[in-house]
Write a structure and sequence with these properties.
7-stranded mixed β-sheet, binds oxidized coenzyme A, 5-stranded antiparallel β-sheet
């Protein structure tokens, strides 16, 4: 048995970092490469791995300590030889090496310039594998600079932007949002006069050499770590928050659970203001943290155990037949957590009704025919008017007549909004998203149809920004293009109602004398019983039905 000191490895450009989390304690048995502590600079947070296996004898760092490359983290009674490639600083630095001959070594004086095609691969990103592409910044035809960010990828430990190793014109982009990538995967093909980056990125063949995830591997690979949550290994990563280390620190100081904060910053990132807003809402009773909700007798958002429920069934499905396990995507995880909270916390009731849209549909079809003709004749841009756009206008009229449907609960008060921003559920390959059309009371059906088309496309392409998904006062979920009769949509908190719409069908309707064929649209209005009562909901649906059967009423 030998006592070995584990040091901070080469952490790239970071001079001095603060210890923000201790992941082991004296007496723990650690494996080689197991994360020992988390450190944070103003740019990134990262976990420092052990260079050897053994039992922790002594901790040499404490929370808040400032440490740098070479600082001793702890002393272990080593069980065997230190892991070969890990954390003596020199060894780590040596793992990140430029391999492709065309890529000059870090610190080489000049960038190489050549003509032709060059492939840009995912650089050495440590042992992160199958990272989800969550953002694409460039498109074919763009002129790319060396180290310009091409995409953002995300694992359960970090989000990072992947830079281009070369400059040139982007000929082909080989990835899209939703794909997963690993080190060495082909990202893009550049053409023209391509100049190579100084080799701060290790290219694919370096993989075996740089097989250890080390901060050095990340920092030296010129990867900007945007969000590396300081969580204990194995902690839940549902709805992984994006936030800079300084915001994380701020949230920690206030005791704010970052995963419950909605990010309003660029790309959904959580900003300091978001943390402040969340804190204020909790302090004023406008919202509860999950921990508070779980403790509350009226209980709600906690896990099943906190609610006194029996545990979720754990079944070995493979015992009954072949299975395939697939992790859920990020959007599904986030929307799932929100839906669960809303389903549990809101005493929701759904009223079903039918609206006669016979004349409205005939009008919509005639408008579309006219538009199509005008479009073909080059007289105007052809916008397809959708039933959903009429529904939005009709809902705005109903929301104005029954303003509590356009309100939100804030503690014991109701906030009535004098704006009518309508969200609509969009089915996308990545999961359910709710883009928002703003100021619908000021817009016509044509403009709403056009904006809806654009927003739905952006949602499907994974290009919706957070601003385009926030601020809704009421939501419509239309399954009309698919089918079904009625359903019970879940309210999108902090809204207090949502309208579900299914496929219209011809039905025999009694007009007082006889049955006549009418096109009937099934409506399902879910409402928060704390704010709205059944009579108001029935009136809302009836009014909506009147407008839809005679759209001139919108003008009244
Ligand atoms: N009744 C009958 N037909 C309808 C209809 C209705 N209520 N609503 C739409 N249609 C028809 C349209 O007229 C269109 O037919 P044509 O192509 O012949 O003109 C067709 O269905 C396709 O419509 P669409 O669904 O593409 O367009 P939309 O404007 O109705 O909806 C959008 C757009 C983004 C809401 C839709 O694409 C979508 O994503 N719907 C799913 C929403 C969802 O998942 N909700 C569930 C949330 S809870 O899990």
């Amino acid at each position: 048995m030998t006592s070995l000191e584990v040091q901070v490895p080469d952490i790239g450009d970071f001079d001095e970092v603060t210890v923000i989390e201790l992941m082991v304690k004296v007496g723990d048995t650690v494996k080689a490469e197991q994360s020992l502590i988390t450190v944070e600079s103003d740019k990134a947070s990262m976990e420092i791995p052990s260079s050897t296996a053994g039992v922790v004898k002594e901790m040499r760092v404490a929370l808040g300590d400032k440490i740098k490359q070479g600082s001793i983290v702890l002393v272990v009674e080593a069980a065997g030889e230190p892991a070969a490639p890990a954390a003596a600083p020199a060894a780590v630095a040596a793992t990140v090496v430029p391999v492709a001959a065309s890529v000059p070594v870090a610190g080489a004086p000049a960038a190489a310039v050549s003509s032709g095609r060059v492939e840009v691969h995912v650089p050495d990103i440590g042992d992160f594998k199958d990272l989800a592409v969550i953002e694409v910044f460039v498109k074919p035809g763009d002129t790319i600079k060396v180290e310009q960010s091409l995409i953002t990828v995300e694992s359960d430990k970090a989000s990072m932007e992947i830079p281009s190793s070369h400059a040139g014109v982007l000929k082909e982009l080989k990835v899209k949002v939703g794909d997963t990538v690993s080190m060495g995967d082909l990202l893009a093909i550049l053409e023209g006069t391509v100049s190579a980056a100084l080799a701060r990125v290790a290219v694919p063949a370096a993989a075996s050499a740089a097989a250890v995830v080390t901060p050095a591997a990340i920092a030296t690979a010129a990867v900007a770590v945007l969000a590396a949550p300081a969580h204990a290994p194995g902690a839940p990563t549902l709805g992984l928050p994006h936030a800079s280390p300084s915001v994380r620190k701020f949230a920690r100081e206030l005791g704010v659970p970052l995963e419950e904060v909605i990010g309003q910053g660029p790309k959904g990132r959580i900003t300091q203001t978001d943390v402040q807003t969340f804190t204020k809402a909790v302090m004023t009773g406008g919202t509860q943290t999950k921990a508070q909700a779980a403790k509350s007798p009226a209980a709600s958002g906690g896990d099943g155990a906190a609610l006194g429920l029996i545990p979720w069934p754990k079944v070995d499905f493979a015992k009954f037949g072949p299975i395939e396990r697939k992790e859920m995507g990020r959007i599904k995880k986030i929307s799932g957590a929100n839906l669960l909270r809303n389903a549990i916390m809101i005493p929701a009731v759904t009223n079903h009704d039918d609206a006669d849209i016979t004349e409205l549909e005939a009008f919509r079809v005639s408008i579309n025919l006219e538009n199509e003709k005008a479009g073909k004749a080059g007289l105007s841009a052809s916008v397809k008017v959708t039933m959903l756009a009429f529904l939005i206008k009709a809902c705005v009229a109903a929301l104005k007549k029954y303003p509590e449907f356009n309100s939100s609960l804030d503690g014991d008060a109701l906030v009535y909004k004098n704006y009518w921003h309508i969200g609509f559920a969009a089915d996308t390959p990545n999961g359910l998203m709710v883009p928002v059309i703003r100021d619908c009371e000021k817009k016509g059906v044509l403009q709403i149809s056009q904006e809806m088309g654009e927003l739905a496309k952006k949602a499907r392409d994974g290009k919706l920004g957070p601003a385009e998904m926030s601020g809704a006062t009421f939501t419509i979920s239309s399954l009309g293009g698919i089918g079904g009769k009625y359903f019970t949509p879940i309210i999108n908190a902090p809204e207090v109602a949502i309208l579900g719409v299914c496929k219209s069908s011809m039905e025999p309707v009694w007009d007082g004398k006889q049955f006549v064929p009418r096109l009937m649209l099934p409506l399902s209005l879910t409402w928060d019983h704390r704010v709205i009562d059944g009579a108001a909901a029935a009136r809302f649906n009836a009014f909506l039905g009147q407008i839809l059967s005679d759209f001139r009423r919108v003008l009244l």
